[in-house]
Amino acid sequence: MSNVHPFFRLMSYARKYRQQIWTATTCSILNKFFDLAPPVLIGAAIDLVLQKENFWANPFGVQGLAAQLLVLSAISGVIWGLESIFEYAYALQWRNLAQTVQHDLRLDAYQHLQELELAFFEDRSSGGLMSILSDDVNQLERFLDGGANEVIQVSATILLIGGAFFVITPNVAWLALSPMPFILWGSIWFQKFLAPRYAEVREKVGMLNGQLSNNIGGITTIKAFVTEAYERKRIEKESNQYRQSNRKAIAYSAAFVPLIRILIFMGFIAILYYGGLEVQAGKLSVGNYSVMIYLIQRLLWPLTRLGETLDQYQRAMASTNRILDLLDTPIAIHSGSQVLNSVVNGEIQLKNVTFGYTANFPIVENLSLEIAAHKTTAIVGATGSGKSTLVKLLLRLYEIQSGNIFLDRIDIRDLELRSLRSCMGWVSQDVFLFHGSVLENIAYGSFDATVEEIVEAAKIAEAHDFIQTLPKGYDTIVGERGQKLSGGQRQRIAIARAVLRNPPILILDEATSAVDNETEAAIQKSLDYITKNRTTIAIAHRLSTIRNADRIYVMDRGKVVEMGTHDELVANNGIYTGLWNLQTGQK
Fold first, then answer.
1. At what angle do helices 517-530 and 487-501 cross, to 10 degrees?
2. Could you tell me where the DSSP H helices lie in 281-374?
3. Is domain 348-584 given the CATH code 3.40.640.10 in the classification?
4. Tens digit of pLDDT for each residue in 182-212?
5. Cα–Cα distance for residue pair 501/392, rounded to 1 Å
6. In whole angstroms, what is the distance from residue 506 CA to residue 525 CA?
7. Which fold has domain 6-327?
8. Cα radius of gyration (the chain)
9. Per-residue pLDDT tens for 226-247?
10. Burial bucket for residue 396 (CB in 10 Å: 0-12, 13-18, 19+)
11. What is this structure's pTM?
């Protein structure tokens, strides 16, 4: 977390909105100026009526009490009109600014989030990140929508009224304004005091949202294991911690207003008592005395709202810190600058590659292997041997710790990430379908594809027939994460998605793990077409799906221990032979 105050971090981010901020601020100050003008006119009218003073006649050439009062009325109308105009203007400016900032900030944070490596997401809950992108951004929006204007107008009120007091009667002004330094100092101290309390509140709401998101995603498991009561208690615990942290902050912020009222009361008494004595002594007119009484009241109410504004400000600053901390998270995997040629051969080499998800615990170590272009290469091994990790390293979802990976003899770290990943089609064992139609999910990543091309890809993936049986065919909504479809149906849609993309390199990571034998056999028939003229990498537990591969690598504990064709490896009587015999039921 940065040591810079969140307000200055926000101002640094908001430089591009400088013109809008100045316009909104100017409108707020002018509105407050005209809002405070009527008491001055009231004081002038009182002096005019009581003392029959003729000072309005000289500047305007107006004679007589009635005419001068008419002039005062006209000026009052202009002031009220200008106050209303600037009130509309500042509301429009601040609210539009709030909408623009929250929109840009959410998009910037989301874009940055997409560029972070997978390890970042493994250490954080999706609900906590959602809380930052949604709740924290909205908290800042609410402050900009009203709180920012309140802070500016309170500051303008203090300066304008303080200036007016010193012009009218310096002898009394310093007494009336003597509480101001204590109020301002107390406000600053109170901000620092409340800041950690609201940081804790934002942390607790993030944890609560994380638990809620996790439970909603796992609702099927919760129902299957009849753990509704248990999960309710967990949510109750998180919600109660959020409530308690809020209570602490509220208890302190609620005490601010009464303290402010006491200090303001001291200033009010000074004006009421000493101002009256000045009037009696003839040093202060009745009109000016009335102006000061009115103005001290106008100062009272904004300052009593300062506690609420301060509360809103601290919540916004706590949220700002969380948002900007996310934006300041360094990107570990940086894109190269080189773009692949339009024709990708698909030859891949790994040389002495070492990688581990945690330090000093490598998943693959000094691994070297070659994947021939336009051939099918299979990688097999026991669970945890590092097979799927290799795929993520090829896509640069993780950064290798040492060694090199080459694509067409170019180090993949020198390639643009978009260029690298665009040439690969990945069918993961953990298929993710977006909430939308079957058609939209197949076309994901190939948004310009025609309906005919989508249908053809589905036929190749042996998905067309079951799609036709769905209630609305290709327009059927699959539900969040594809929950309306079976595991085999989801995987066939994922295969169709990869086929439609027509990548030079196809990665099948346990692509048939969730299909039945009949569907697996059907997919196997289409593999000759799918793998034609492209480099195919097949990660598999079920050896029957890769027995026709041109080369098979057997991995164990992050290292290649055997390689060859299916027949060669079976004859070798090694690890592969044991796996094959186990799966085929042979002794």
1. 0
2. 286-304, 306-327
3. no
4. 776 766 677 677 767 777 777 787 778 777 8
5. 19
6. 17
7. ABC transporter transmembrane region fold (1.20.1560)
8. 36
9. 778 888 888 888 888 888 888 8
10. buried
11. 0.73
